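Pipeline run #58 for the internal structure catalog. This entry was flagged by the ingest filter as a single-chain record with no existing model, so it goes straight to prediction. Upstream metadata was stripped on purpose; only the residue string is passed forward. Reviewer on rotation: M.T. Logging verbosity set to normal.
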Amino acid sequence: MVAKRLRALQRGESVNLDRHDVAPDSPHARAFVERAEMGDGWLHPAASNFTFVVELALDDQRAYGVYKPERGERPLWDFPPGLYRRECAAYELSLLLGWPIAPPTVVRDGELGVGSLQLFVPPRPDSHFFSLRDDHLEEALRMAVFDLVANNADRKGGHCFVAQTGGVWGIDHGLTLHAEHKLRTVIWDFAGNPVPQPLLDDLARLSSLLDAPAHGAASALTGLLAPDETDALRERVRRLLADPVMPAPTSHRDLPYPWL
């Protein structure tokens, strides 16, 4: 039964998860992920690093989470170990922006040690960027702006989807927030378009928070990053506010492989 579920997840099909009581936009979702007991976990067959789907339980609530331990990370030449911190930082970034993009993601100790634990969000069948963009243009543009600010080096089409409960969500943010330019994404549909004013207002607020003292509202984000990564994030936001136009790809290296 477990293998059947995971194969269905890999294909983007609807999966019977028994009980999944916690929606990603619930005001209690973060506390649930922070406090829930992790039960049985199963290795996800499509992940390049060790990624476990785990049962979560807190009081009378049940859900599933995605546990990515540092010990299961494949070494990379251009990113240091600790990709799980970037998963958590992407969530903190989406919180500061007020954009419901990354599901609640926190640092947790699990069976294989420290890593990230993210609330699993059941996707609609066959939902990915290429199937959602026409009906969700506003959310797709917001995702593109988020990836530009987060310096996302791996936005494949399958890394964003419409949830069964609604809303467009993004996952797999382990390759984000590097100090060097790394943007690699399938979302280039908005190249040359101006960034809408409501998003610029959110970015201006983020810029102010990043300029505040280390103990301020952005400390949960900056505490997960190296100082040069925080500086680079601050500079990316400033550049976009100064020139609020979406960029265009410059070479094939700006596109991930595979696209999904």
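catalog note: Helices lie at 2-10, 29-35, 83-97, 129-132, 137-150, 197-210, 219-222, 227-242.
catalog note: The two ends are 26 Å apart (CA to CA).
status: ready for reviewer M.T.
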